[in-house]
Amino acid sequence: MRKLLVALAVVTFAVLAAAAAAGRHHAVGRVSVPGRLSIRVPVGWHVLRGWLSDVTDPAPRFAMASFPARLSRHTCECGSPNVVNFPRDGAFVFVWENLRPSHRQLAQAPRRPTRFALAAGRGVRLTCDGPNGGFYFKDAGRVFQVEVYIGPKSSQVLRGRVAAMLESLRVPPDA
φ and ψ at 62, to 5 degrees? Predict the structure, then answer.
């Protein structure tokens, strides 16, 4: 009986360890963010809550990072967040929403892409240097701007996680 319990404990531990390892590459679950938006967050990623920028329109909707990001209270000149100690292998995603898009902006904004492709290329060390990837699109009658910051030592796997995360964004029509 004792051997059976030990064997059961070993098998249970192995199954849990395998499930945890497999889960590292998948999303934790859907998270609600301001603006009635929701998005799937990869395991190990961090959703920043609270103050994101002094800019009010476009409104900062959410920010996520592959590391425990901390924002400086001093934004960049353009109002974008200034990430403190951005890691060389990290990723930071910031989403703005134009709260009152004109008819012209809605007409000119491209539709949301079905796939978000992040080109390989130079990485950024400071968010104030500007994003190395970005998207401007409309979805459900709303206009968004996504800024993606990727560190110079980031992997293609990390870029894939960013793209998958953006593709999981759900946008309800504005009420």
Answer: -165, 160
In a domain, 52, yes or no: yes
Q: 67 lies in a domain? A: yes
Q: How far apart are CA 169 and CA 32, in angstroms?
A: 10
State what percent of residues in the chain have pLDDT above 90. Answer: 50
Residues belonging to the chain:
175
Query: What is the phi-psi region of residue 111: left when phi exceeds 0, alpha when psi lies from -120 to 50, beta otherwise?
Result: beta
Residue ranges making up the domain that contains 107: 27-167
Q: From CA 93, how far away is CA 47, in angstroms rounded?
A: 10
Question: Quick one: average pLDDT of 140-151?
Answer: 92
Spell 85-99 as b/e; 16+ CB within 10 A means b: ebbeebbbbbbbbbe
Give a yes or no: residue 140 inside a domain.
yes
Q: Residue 76: inside a domain, yes or no? A: yes
SS3 53: coil
Count of the separate structural domains present in the chain:
1
| Band of residue 62 on the pLDDT scale cut at 50, 70, 90 | very high
